[in-house]
Q: What sequence folds into this?
């Protein structure tokens, strides 16, 4: 599987990563090599095999809907790089 | 004997009898840290003042006065938790993880937060966003990873015991390379609430200690169901110290032929084979077994782990966790923050996972890997019909030199070839010291158990450890 520069750019964009021209080449080669290695999974016939998403059999873990104390606002916002009043502040989205 | 040399159980005895005070223990330990930390670089943060404060409080818990180190991807309220990543360099958790809450109730003393491969992605601690940790047995070599800081801190006697996390071998492999005991419990046995998520279907918190008994003591505190982690299993945990009978007569030990392969390090192979002979002399019965899909584990893992990571790490967007880089608009701010905040291995894995989950590729990669995971899990189920535990090398070689594998990600990934299947199957595994190479580098024996049967591997590991002298050797620093 060859990952070309264009694909690297596309994947980086989906990943929300800004990458340099040099990184496009390096990641392209490295990702291609890793995907070549992963190709070996195709040696196995898995047509009738159920996928495993989780190894222990737990489904729909529920709890009673009782109110609990939540994290204080000041604590929750404590790590914000930028904030105003009780909100996180981000660069302007709408012109 | 200097106090810092002791393990948890030995130190606990002295503290319980009031032969030493928690303050004397800390004085000894920080003297040790001051003497060797510059060489080893195990800690991202040393919590000296906090430690003395903690040692003065809660004096009647089972771990009162016991100084432990915590891997820096486990949240400690009010204490910087970085994941060894620039993106979390100044992150102060507003809450306590369940494991450290339980340790706090038991009276533990936090000595510091240990270095790791950024976000636990790596096998050498070279991917730390801050600095690499060195192997106390040879400072020119890596300590393993990703819990390299915890393993090196225990081996260098810079703490009495430690917690790590293990997604593909990140407790067992560094424990093996540093000559200490590393236990990855069954998936679901220990709450992950407050563990910074990497690959959620694989991540597990466990222990790194100077002896198997110490692992059992810590497991007694951290195990058990937690309503705050919906993946923690509602299964009762036994008293793990009571299962260490040393009687292993008749226990069947599976030796998988796929784990002793052409080209593996001869010294590692012979140390592990000797260990199996020792177990036989103690009354265990070796049985050859087969885990036929072993050769597919790494490929499976690097699809599942990276896919899950690409989703888990989406939250680091420059809005909530301290670090932000400027951008010309919101999207550009995200992209610049992540470009400057993440190191190259993290970027590579996010990109691989994003690719595997992207439109048109999901079936070919993610679903396929989940199906192969089923086959790997079945391999263990079949083997465990014939045997009680499985014995293998923990790592294919002893500690390697810095830079030896950094240019080739695949070569690095192969360091976890013997540990990854255990995470995919969700079973418990322990690494216990079983010898040294001619270069005086430690070798580890891995014992793998059935789901929720840490008891048997702990007992066998304990029996082995107590009949050998490997765990008594200390590196010269």
A:
């Amino acid at each position: 599987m060859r990952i070309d520069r264009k694909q690297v750019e596309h994947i980086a964009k989906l990943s929300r990563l800004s990458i340099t021209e040099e990184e496009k080449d390096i990641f392209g080669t490295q990702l291609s090599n890793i995907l070549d290695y992963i190709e070996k999974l195709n040696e196995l016939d898995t047509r009738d095999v159920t996928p495993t998403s989780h190894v222990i059999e737990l489904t729909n873990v529920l709890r009673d809907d009782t109110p609990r104390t939540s994290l204080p606002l000041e604590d929750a916002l404590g790590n914000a790089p930028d904030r105003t009043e009780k909100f996180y502040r981000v660069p302007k989205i709408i012109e | 004997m200097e106090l810092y040399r002791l393990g948890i159980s030995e130190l606990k005895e002295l503290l319980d009898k009031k032969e030493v005070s928690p303050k004397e223990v800390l004085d000894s330990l920080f003297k040790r840290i001051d003497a060797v930390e510059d060489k080893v670089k195990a800690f991202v943060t040393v919590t000296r003042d906090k430690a003395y404060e903690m040692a003065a409080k809660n004096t009647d818990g089972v771990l009162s006065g016991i100084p432990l180190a915590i891997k820096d991807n486990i949240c400690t309220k009010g204490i910087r938790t970085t994941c060894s990543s620039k993106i979390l360099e100044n992150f102060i958790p507003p809450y306590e993880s369940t494991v450290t809450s339980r340790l706090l109730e038991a009276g533990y003393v936090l000595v510091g937060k240990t270095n790791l491969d950024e976000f636990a992605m790596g096998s050498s601690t070279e991917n730390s966003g801050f600095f690499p940790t060195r192997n106390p047995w040879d400072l020119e070599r890596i300590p393993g990873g990703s819990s390299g800081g915890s393993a090196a801190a225990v081996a260098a006697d810079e703490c009495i015991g430690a917690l790590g996390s293990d997604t593909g071998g990140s407790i067992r492999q560094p424990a093996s390379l540093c000559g200490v005991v590393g236990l990855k419990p069954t998936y679901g046995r220990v709450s992950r609430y407050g563990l910074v998520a990497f690959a959620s279907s694989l991540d597990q918190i466990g222990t790194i200690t100077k002896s198997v008994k110490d692992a059992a003591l810590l497991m007694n505190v951290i195990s058990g169901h937690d309503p705050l982690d919906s993946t923690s299993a509602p299964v009762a945990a036994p008293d793990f110290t009571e299962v260490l009978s040393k009687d292993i007569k008749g226990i069947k030990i599976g030796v998988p032929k796929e784990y002793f392969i052409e080209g593996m390090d001869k010294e590692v192979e012979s140390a592990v084979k000797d260990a199996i002979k020792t177990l036989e002399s103690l009354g265990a019965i070796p049985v050859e077994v087969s885990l036929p899909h072993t050769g597919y584990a790494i490929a499976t893992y690097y699809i599942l782990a990276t896919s899950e990571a690409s989703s888990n790490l989406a939250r680091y967007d420059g809005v909530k966790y301290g670090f932000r880089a400027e951008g010309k608009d919101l999207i550009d701010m995200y992209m610049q923050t992540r470009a400057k905040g993440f190191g190259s291995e993290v970027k590579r894995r996010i990109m691989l996972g994003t690719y595997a989950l992207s439109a048109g590729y999901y079936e070919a990669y993610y679903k396929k890997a989940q199906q192969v995971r089923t086959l790997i899990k079945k391999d263990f189920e079949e083997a465990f019909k014939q045997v009680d535990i499985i014995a293998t090398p923990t790592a294919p070689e002893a500690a390697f030199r810095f830079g030896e594998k950094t240019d080739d990600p695949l070569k690095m990934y192969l360091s976890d070839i013997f540990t990854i299947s255990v995470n995919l199957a969700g079973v418990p595994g322990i690494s216990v010291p079983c010898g040294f190479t001619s270069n005086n580098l430690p070798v580890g024996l891995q014992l793998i158990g059935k789901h929720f049967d840490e008891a048997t591997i702990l007992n066998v590991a304990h029996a082995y450890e107590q009949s050998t002298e490997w765990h008594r050797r200390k590196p010269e620093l």
